[in-house]
Amino acid sequence: MTDTAPVPGPPPPTGPAPATRTRTGPRRFVAPALMVGPVVFFAVFFGYPVTAIVARGLRPDGEWELGHVGEVLADEGIRQVLWFTTWQAAASTALTLLLALPGAYVLARFRFPGKRLLRAVVTVPFVLPTVVVGAAFLGLIGRGGLLDDLWGLRLDTTVWAILLAHVFFNYAVVVRTVGGLWSQLDPRQEEAARLLGAGAFGAWRRVTLPALLPALAAAALMVFLFTFTSFGVVQILGGPGYATLEVEIYRQTAQLLDLPTAAVLTLLQFAAVAAMLGVHGWTVHRRESALRLVDAAATDRPPRGAGERLLLGGVLLSVAALVLLPLGVLIERSLRVPDGYGFAHYRALATTDTGTFVVPPLEAVGNSLRIAAVATLIALLVGGLAAAALTRGAGRLVRGFDAMLMLPLGTSAVTVGFGFLIALDTPPLDLRSSWLLVPLAQALVGVPFVIRVMLPVLRAVDDRLRQAAATLGASPLRAWWEVDLPLVRRALVLAAGFAFAVSLGEFGATVFIARPDEPTLPVAIARLLGRAGEANYGQAMALSTVLMLVCAATLLALERIRPARSGEF
Amino acid sequence: MTKTTVPSSGPVPGAMLRLEALTVRYGGRPVVDAVDLAVDAGETVCVLGPSGSGKSTLLRAVAGLAAPDGGRVLLGGRDQEGIPPHRRGVGLMFQDHQLFPQHDVAANVGFGLRVRGTGREERGERVARLLDMVGLVGAERRAVTALSGGEQQRVALARALAPGPRLLMLDEPLGQLDRGLRERLVVELRSLFRRLGTTVLAVTHDQGEAFALADRVVVMRDGRVEQTGSPVDVWSRPVSEFVARFLGFSNVVPATLTGTTAQCAWGAVEVAEDAPDGPVGLLVRPGGVRLSEPLAGHDAPASGEHTAQPGGAADTTAGRDALPGLGCVVKGRTFRGDHVVLHLDPERGPDLEATCSLRAAPAEGAVVRVRFDPEETVLLPPTG
């Protein structure tokens, strides 16, 4: 492709700068320009701290000690950890998809009373700190738990406890990611397939499934990543017999202070996550399918017939058993006081009497909300820019960028938190005493969510709409503002909700960097759980309940915010 | 007979749009191949061609949505290279409208004004005026998704016109509408563009649409301009077999010209044109295929215009074998409202099409004799 054409006649008098005379014109530079912000953000707040801590492990005295890598990899125990980490993640992902896909379908296609509540309810577990979930499941299936009381059934220290807790956690990922897109697919597509002779399942498989596949793959990838790097759940429910890489890294870092081994394991996890993302990129292959999205409100209908009612009932039942029961046990424990039930634990939260905190634990609510709000803003900004870049660009550079943005999900939070501490403590990046440190760390986890939620919807926006805007005189920025934004507003709200929720629940990194006088809710809960005594346990349960309610309230509010013109979406 | 690849209709310094050797390639293949074209201010030019002839790409290159690989696009005399679409001041009506689903009718039509910072009040007035013009009075608050195809078309037109583009481009403007609506709209569009003095570049694959709309027609083939001219010009004097066939003429055969007689598969055909002897292509318009005599026993309408030829009466009296002309079996008849198209299978040579009046149409299976009217023949360049 030539830049300038051999045009006969006089040359153009006032030609623009040569840089714009390329084949694709200025558009070629749009994607890289949008990528600058996110890349800098990730370099400074992810690449730098993680590199710093890994280097500290592998170069303790300024000398590379790479021999240690081989030692660690040859270790039989480490190999077992690696194997367990992988297969439990695969099993958890399969189980989650199996149980949550009917839920996604029901929430996408059926209209029934309490639907909004149901959607919020299944999302609550996702934002609960792992320690709380661990505790809740212990209360359900552990020693002296509900099932133990009733039938003498105990599942703790078995792998089933881990798998169930993972399903509990990630149910919302599938429901939200897959169901969100599903509810915007035009049901008439399936109807058309039916009229062409496809059976109900055949129509779904040939029409809906291919459209859902990118979202499905994204959801499966997320669940696999979360469960692959699972930490709190495995540590609490698995007992000493089971450890994931993440648990092992924590053990090596915080308990054994074996930074070299932790560094090797961190790199190992990195490699595994990178491989996963590679496989993901290869399978999904980024087909830019311009789906015809319709208003979600127009696609649902009351369930018809016994089969559909049965399906709805089954979903409600499974949600009750999987999600409500553990949460119910959590609440029950928070109200249980030595002489029956009462609010003593909640009252204690407003005081500093227990001596665990310098401030009343209830202040953690305000801290958490404020920090999560800032983290959400950062995540939306960085993630939004990144998603916009990913929509516009293609090719190797952009795909690598896409994978890079997913890395924080697969990186040990312990590594990130510890890395923040040792890396961001010297000018000009001395953020140790800045309140921004915590939101920055939390935003890191929020960004991948923002991207995953925004990308399918942004990609589904017909490029010709932007072109129409351009021929009407709208600059690219203006076209984005006028065309993309209104179409993706719903997804943006959803992304904000996700980012806010994961920020609220983030624990692994926050626990390292939160200031003692400004604990977040998960940190405060963990501190209470770490103390012995019924009172502390009760207060932890009470504070967990508070966190749960805050999350539920936030999510319900988000469910209510709908774009003004959604009827035309 | 030479192919007229007229660069433009003479030197037009005032041409609103001027393409100079414009070339656009997709994957190395030229989709628009060294096209020269000029559109004067106030003129309506229609690019006509089958799908894949590069006409849509031509529009996209002018709009700045596709980057040329060679040549220049000049708007109002200024080279547009490097100028992004939103600064070119051209309007494009997309084939499938591409109305903004999240905006109502008024917001769609007023979009171009809004991004230019036109005030709310003025915008409202102009939107109302435009909607009035396209026949959608009071539709401001309606959702575009609830509009019928014809209404969407009108909104798309109003939206493209609103910012007062110096050049309005239409991509298959009426392609998706049913015929009645299309025919009505084409007339409306033409008078509207006349009234507004809009400069229009339209592309279509529908010759009827092109001829009804355009002051000038440009026929494209494989990215190249095959013929340019007024609708009447192009219609009456297609310059190549491609153009002739694309316009719907199927009576085209290779022939050898000697004087004014073309020897072809149908026999010797007299032509009215003067051209050097040698190989040519011969087109006989359906209207120039004159029916002489159906079989005895069929009513031979002497009043029919097609049979009222000199010699027609003589033919009927003579024996069949001695009749001049070409014997044909009527294979089929297609009614076209006021006339009938006959599909004829001649005793020699490829199939023929002839038109005749409804009343004069012979039945299917009838045997007729045809003669060719020299005035209705066109000599084309020899076909490869």
List the helices and strands and how they pair.
The complex is a heterodimer of chains A (569) and B (384).
Chain A: H1 30-58, H2 67-74, H3 76-109, H4 115-127, H5 130-141, H6 146-151, H7 159-182, H8 187-195, H9 200-228, H10 232-238, H11 245-255, H12 259-284, H13 305-335, E1 336-337, E2 340-341, H14 344-348, H15 363-392, H16 396-410, H17 413-423, H18 437-459, H19 463-471, H20 476-505, H21 510-513, H22 521-530, H23 534-560
Antiparallel strand pairs in A: 1-2
Helix pairs in contact in A: 1-12, 1-15, 1-16, 1-17, 2-12, 3-7, 3-9, 3-13, 4-7, 4-13, 4-23, 5-10, 5-13, 7-9, 7-10, 8-9, 9-12, 11-12, 12-16, 13-23, 15-18, 15-20, 16-18, 18-20, 19-20, 20-23, 22-23
Chain B: E1 15-26, E2 29-40, E3 44-48, H1 55-63, E4 70-75, E5 78-79, E6 90-93, H2 105-109, H3 111-115, H4 120-133, H5 149-161, E7 167-171, H6 179-196, E8 200-204, H7 207-213, E9 216-221, E10 224-229, H8 231-236, H9 241-246, E11 252-258, E12 261-264, E13 267-270, E14 278-284, E15 289-291, H10 312-317, E16 326-336, E17 339-346, E18 352-357, E19 367-372, E20 377-380
Helix pairs in contact in B: 4-5
Strand order within the widest sheet of chain A?
1-2
Shape of chain A: globular
Number of strands of chain B: 20
| CATH class categorisation of chain A | Mainly Alpha
Describe the oligomeric state of these chains in a short phrase: heterodimer
The largest beta-sheet of chain B arranges its strands as 6-7-8-3-9-10
Number of helices of chain B: 10
SSE pattern of chain B: EEEHEEEHHHHEHEHEEHHEEEEEHEEEEE
Chain pair sharing the greatest interface = A-B, 42 and 45 residues
Portion in beta strands of chain B: 25-35%
Structural class of chain A: mainly alpha
Rg calc of chain B: 25 Å
Output mean pLDDT of chain B: 84
Task: Catalogue the unreliable spans of chain B.
Answer: 1-12, 295-322
* CATH architecture field of chain A: Orthogonal Bundle
Q: Roughly how much helix do the residues of chain A carry, as a percent range?
A: over 70%
- N-to-C span of chain A: 40 Å
List the helices and strands of chain A in order: HHHHHHHHHHHHHEEHHHHHHHHHH
Main structural class of chain B: alpha+beta
